TrEMBL record:
This is DUF1104 domain-containing protein. Keywords: Signal. The keyword Signal applies. Residues 154-164 have a biased composition (Basic and acidic residues). Residues 1-22 form the signal peptide. Residues 139-164 are annotated as: Disordered. Pfam families: DUF1104 (PF06518). Residues 140-153 have a biased composition (Basic residues).
Length: 164
C-alpha cells in the first residue's frame, strides 16, 4: 500500500512539474504568422517575452517589411481585442505594463537596451496598439520636439504641428 501511495504521489509531482514547464511559452520557435495570430491574445505575464521576440525579428527586417509586419500585428491585435470592454482592455494594458516593468527590473542595463522593452507607450491611446503588438513604428503620432534642425532640413508631414 505504501508503494502505491509513493508511486501515485510521484506521478502527481511529475505531472505538476511537466505542467509548469509546458506553461512556459517559447516564442522563438513560432513562425511570423503564428506570432501575428497571437497578437492581443498573449497572457500579460508572457507579453515581455513576446515583445522581445518581436523586437528581435523586426531588427532583422528591412523598413518596408518591418512596417508590413507591424501592420499585420496591429490588425490582428485589433481583431483579437475588439470584443473586450474598455474596462477589460485597460486592465489588460495595466497587467502588461506591470509584467514589463517587473521584467525590466531584473535586467542589466545592457539587456534592457537590447530587449526592445519599454513601459512607456507612444501615447497613441490604443490607436496603434504599440503596447499590445510590439514597438510602435507607425510614425503617425506627430510627436513634438524642440530640437533645431540642420540647415536645409525640411519638415515633412508634421510641419504645422509645431505651431501653437
Amino acid at each position: 500500500m505504501k508503494s502505491v501511495k509513493l508511486g501515485l504521489s510521484s506521478l502527481i509531482l511529475a505531472g505538476l512539474c511537466t505542467g509548469l514547464w509546458a506553461n512556459e511559452v517559447s516564442f522563438k520557435n513560432k513562425s511570423n504568422q503564428e506570432l501575428i495570430e497571437l497578437a492581443g491574445k498573449v497572457a500579460p505575464n508572457e507579453v515581455p517575452d513576446y515583445q522581445m521576440e518581436l523586437f528581435k525579428r523586426m531588427k532583422g527586417m528591412g523598413a518596408e517589411q518591418k512596417k508590413e509586419f507591424h501592420d499585420q500585428l496591429k490588425k490582428a491585435a485589433d481583431k483579437n481585442t475588439e470584443n473586450m470592454t474598455m474596462e477589460e482592455f485597460e486592465k489588460r494594458r495595466e497587467a502588461i505594463r506591470a509584467a514589463i516593468k517587473a521584467r525590466i527590473a531584473k535586467m542589466t542595463r545592457a539587456e534592457y537596451k537590447n530587449s526592445g522593452l519599454s513601459v512607456k507607450s507612444c501615447n497613441c491611446h490604443a490607436r496603434c496598439n504599440c503596447d499590445v503588438a510590439g514597438p510602435c513604428t507607425c510614425g503617425k503620432h506627430g510627436h513634438k520636439h524642440d530640437r533645431k534642425h540642420k540647415p536645409g532640413h525640411e519638415h515633412h508631414e508634421h510641419e504645422n504641428k509645431h505651431e501653437s
